[in-house]
Amino acid sequence: MKDIFEKVIENESLNIKDYVEILKSNDLSKISFVADYLRKKDVGDIVTFILDTNINYTNICINRCKFCAFYRDIDDKDSYVLSIEEILKKVEYARKFNVTQVLIQGGLNPEIPFEYYEELIKKIKEKFPEVNVHAFSPVEIEFFSRNFRMSIEEVLQRLKSVGLRSMPGGGAEILVDNVRKKISPKKIGFKKWKEVVIKAHKLGIKTSATMVIGLGESLEDRVKHILRIREIQEKTKGFTSFVVWTFKSGNTELKLREISPLEYLKTIAVARMMLHGIIKNIQSSILTCGVDVSLLSLSYGANDLGGSLIEENVITATGHKKKTLLEEDFVRIIKSINRIPAQRDTFYNILKIY
Q1: Residue 200 has pLDDT above 90, yes or no
Q2: In the sheet that 340-344 helps form, which strands lie side by side, from edge to edge?
């Protein structure tokens, strides 16, 4: 392990087995020290957050992923499609909390016309020009392409023309196809996810990159996932951040054990080690891990606490309780560990340092 950590510090190349050994190791002091050292080199002592909301325009979805408690069939009594007017009211409410980003995602609903998505972005930008619309995961973009018989490039270009500047990197879960086939057999595989992301980056549409752990994947699968994100970033420079979530099994078909805080922290640390100098921003998930573990992750390589999420429906559909943090909450908890709080925008431009 000493040799492996020295190689990480010296920025020497490691193989998959080396990173798996770090994930297996219980030498927390060294793991934390190395990851924190690299974090400081990459981004310094500023801890960022964003004021945002997450609006899910429909819960109707044909993919029926086993890990999802949110989706509904079209005939279900509690299925819905939000009107553009309803979404605008939600954005207006969120603006009372000074949000600068509106995250828009939804199920794969074949009944919604493409013009709805174009009009949605256009109307939000017209009414709230100061807000960035961070919308549609690679899975949704690929679905639009198939459903409306357009190329992926045409879908992206049309959405960009009405104001889309960034996309969430959702739908990635674990970018290893044997895992994907078990948990979401109808969802696109790694190659198609990668294709959409690369085409978005080439058009100047930035994206985040995400990973969900606790889906029955192996430690090697986690390392492969991060490696694939790294390889894309080396080609496109289009990822703004890497985000690690933990799976919540409530109300889903998958009844798997919860990921321990220790596993989560080691995964954050390995992400920093593997993405050092390649993706600067490693985001912790307050939504799935809570404040205490997220604050600990700031000593394991993370530098960003994500968003306030005035609204969120997908994770909360599992029965997991969401904690909404407002601007003053972020400032207080970050200062409690003697770091420097800073509000950012979608693209990690600093808006305010406290």
Answers
A1: yes
A2: 52-56, 101-105, 132-135, 166-167, 206-213, 239-246, 282-283, 304-307, 46-50, 340-344, 350-353
